[in-house]
Design goal:
388 residues, alpha/beta, TIM Barrel, 8-stranded parallel barrel, two-stranded antiparallel sheet, 17 helices, 12 strands, globular
Length: 388
């Protein structure tokens, strides 16, 4: 049977951004901005004076030309050069092809591991309908997410209903919050095989870098990621810091650019495809705490006190973008939509790959949660929010 050449016109391989031979996408595959968010006036209404501070910033630290930036052709341009298998490439592309950010190279992920990490009561009491995993997956789908990341039990309880409708990322280890006194150790709750058999496209894990247990966790997660890649699964690392000595005087260096940057570098070293990190809020952790090794140029040349520059240093430590940086949305509170949009602007303009937004979305009504997720996605869809 003859093949109609027109049926292949949308299957051209991705090209480097800016090249003449750009990827051709079917009209229905191109996500569109919400009608009320086509410009930046809605951002100005949300962030007020902060809007110009964030949107007008020009990065004079690490040049954007040196970054490996997200784009529709990210798999062909970046991941294909790595040692990842064809199956990893396919599953990674599956995540990029889903939700409102499909075909952009950016990601919007709903994480729901807080029932273990923070307790189910603390997580779902604000909206008890989310004790039911079915409603959480509905939120991810209605909210246009690229994927949903959660526990083995939560995803497994509805996997036959949803595994073919939205990409699953199974979180393999957790710090359960029922032991007394509370400890801070990530231990395995699930296996890679269980995630694979469920139909997941990826697995996630947390390492508490800086903790007494971190060396064991690094070894455990490195082995999990090696096996996951052998089965074709994408790997996501929650690269968090945890040590009481990282708090000094009034500063919490768990969110310092230099320490979180090094955590990102370690995450990329054990072949995390995506690195989840808290947004940097300060710097000089190595210097002020007085440990480890650093270089004065980290502070004089590679960073400034601007949040976009601090975040860019986090991106740089993800092999300049060869591992994608997604920042966490943080706890729910006042002005959640403004805070989520602010974080998305910082991440996008710094060179990051997206946001992973949980409590800000599911500790609201379904309608409010969808609106917050869509607002974040509209930042990445908005061409007027550019790389700094």
């Amino acid at each position: 049977m003859a093949i109609n050449p027109n049926s292949l016109k949308n299957l051209r391989p991705g090209r480097k951004p800016g090249s003449k031979n750009k990827t051709t996408l079917a009209k229905e595959d191109i996500a569109t901005l919400s009608p009320s968010r086509t410009g930046v006036s809605w951002i100005e209404d949300l962030l007020h004076d902060e809007a110009s501070y964030l949107l007008g910033h020009e990065c004079k630290t690490i040049d954007s030309k040196d970054l490996i930036i997200p784009g529709p052709d990210y798999i062909d341009r970046v991941v294909k050069e790595s040692d990842r298998s064809n199956t990893v490439l396919r599953n990674f592309q599956t995540i990029f092809n889903h939700g409102r950010l499909r075909a952009t190279g950016y990601l919007s992920i709903l994480p729901v591991d807080q029932g273990v990490e923070h307790s189910a009561g603390a997580s779902f009491a604000p909206n008890p309908e989310y004790f039911d995993p079915n409603n959480l997956i509905k939120l991810a789908i209605e909210g246009g997410c690229s994927a949903v990341a959660s526990t083995l039990g939560l995803l497994g309880s509805v996997s036959r209903k949803y595994a073919h409708k939205i990409p699953f990322i199974v979180k393999l280890n957790h710090n359960e919050f029922l032991s007394y006194p509370n400890g801070y150790d990530q231990i395995p709750f699930a296996s890679v095989d269980q995630a694979f058999n469920m139909g997941a496209v990826g697995v996630g894990a947390t390492i508490y870098f800086g903790s007494q247990e971190s060396k064991r966790q690094i070894q455990e997660v490195a082995q999990l990621f090696e096996y996951a890649h052998s089965l074709g699964l994408v790997t996501v690392l929650w690269a968090y810091l945890r040590n009481p000595s990282f708090k000094k005087d009034s500063q919490d260096y768990h969110v310092s650019a230099d320490l979180t940057g090094q955590a990102n570098h370690l995450a990329a070293t054990i072949e995390a495809d995506i690195v989840k990190q808290k947004l940097a809020e300060n710097n000089n952790g190595f210097i002020d705490i007085g440990f480890g090794r650093t270089d004065k140029r980290v502070y004089s040349d590679l960073t400034s006190d601007h949040p976009i520059d601090l975040n860019r240093y986090q991106v740089a430590n993800c092999f300049l973008g060869r591992a994608g940086l997604i920042n966490s949305g943080g706890a729910s509170g006042e002005n959640d939509i403004a805070q989520a949009v602010k974080t998305a602007i910082i991440n996008k303009r710094a060179g990051g790959m997206g946001l992973i937004t949980g409590r800000k979305a599911f500790q609201k009504t379904m309608k409010e949660g969808v609106d917050i997720l869509n607002a974040v996605q509209d930042v990445y869809l908005n061409k007027k929010v550019k790389l700094a």
